[in-house]
Write a structure and sequence with these properties.
- By secondary structure, the chain is of the alpha/beta class.
- The chain has a single domain, classed as Rossmann fold (3-Layer(aba) Sandwich), CATH 3.40.50.
- It has helices spanning 35-50, 52-60, 88-99, 112-123, 148-158, 173-182, 198-211; strands at 19-28, 64-70, 76-84, 129-138, 161-168, 189-193.
- Strands 3-2-1-4-5-6 form a six-stranded mixed beta sheet, sandwiched between helices.
- A hairpin with a 5-residue loop joins strand 2 (64-70) and strand 3 (76-84).
- Helix 1 (35-50) runs antiparallel to helix 3, helix 1 runs parallel beside helix 7 (198-211) and helix 4 (112-123) runs parallel beside helix 5 (148-158).
- The chain is globular and about 40 Å long.
- The N and C termini lie far apart (34 Å).
């Protein structure tokens, strides 16, 4: 179930030019994420969007962005709605909105299956883009909610690509979980070695998602 956005993000008037990708950025804000780690996520994402190489592609390909925060079974929120990057000003405004985004949930468990369900519903209302992608980040495995594999199958039937960003402390347990249960065929997993590595990992992941050659 979609939660009410914590603040409104005004959509600017945009030209009706072709959109290459609708990219939903889904951030884990479950109980394992402390306040400083949440701040590293939003600052890292904003920095990645402002990266000159990424910003150029976002505008060139009229990419549509949205941000979702997710946690437990009924704890998902679309914090920033669909916005097409029709110019550099759109990118800067969206990145600034990410930085100001309040945390949606605290003290909640981890339900990636429920998060994917809401994410896929939200993609149904995305702009008419050639590709639809969910960029799902997290630092834990499932401990609540529906089976993730069922939602992955739904994504594949919809033609949606699901990629993962696994935030590890030790080993590759989260990366392996995302690879085995979350990402779709043709998707990939990027690994961050702790939250201090998140900014590097999210930049690399977004760049790979929006600059790859398809078809």
């Amino acid at each position: 179930m979609l939660c009410r956005a914590v603040f409104a993000f005004a959509l600017l008037t945009q030209p009706a030019e072709a959109c290459r990708t609708a990219l939903l950025l889904a951030m884990d804000v479950s109980n394992s994420v402390d306040p400083s780690e949440y701040r590293l996520q939003v600052d890292g994402l904003a920095s990645a969007l402002r990266d000159p190489e990424i910003a150029e592609i976002l505008v060139r390909d009229r990419i549509a962005l949205s941000v979702m925060q997710w946690s437990g079974t009924e704890a998902q929120q679309i914090s920033l709605g669909w916005t097409q990057m029709a110019g550099s000003r759109h990118v800067q405004l969206f990145a600034s909105a990410v930085e100001r985004m309040p945390r949606a949930f605290v003290m909640s468990n981890t339900a990636p299956g429920a998060a994917l369900h809401v994410a896929l519903d939200h993609l149904e209302a995305s702009p008419d883009c050639a590709r639809r992608v969910i960029d799902m980040s997290g630092d834990g495995t499932l401990n609540a909610g529906p089976n993730v594999a069922e939602m992955r199958l739904r994504a594949e039937r919809m033609g949606v690509t699901v990629n993962g960003l696994a935030i590890e402390s030790l080993g590759r347990a989260i990366s392996n979980f995302y690879a085995r249960h979350v990402i779709t065929r043709g998707g990939f997993v990027e690994t961050a070695r702790g939250y201090s590595d998140y900014a590097r990992a999210i930049r690399r992941k977004i760049l790979r998602e929006i600059s790859a050659v398809f078809g």
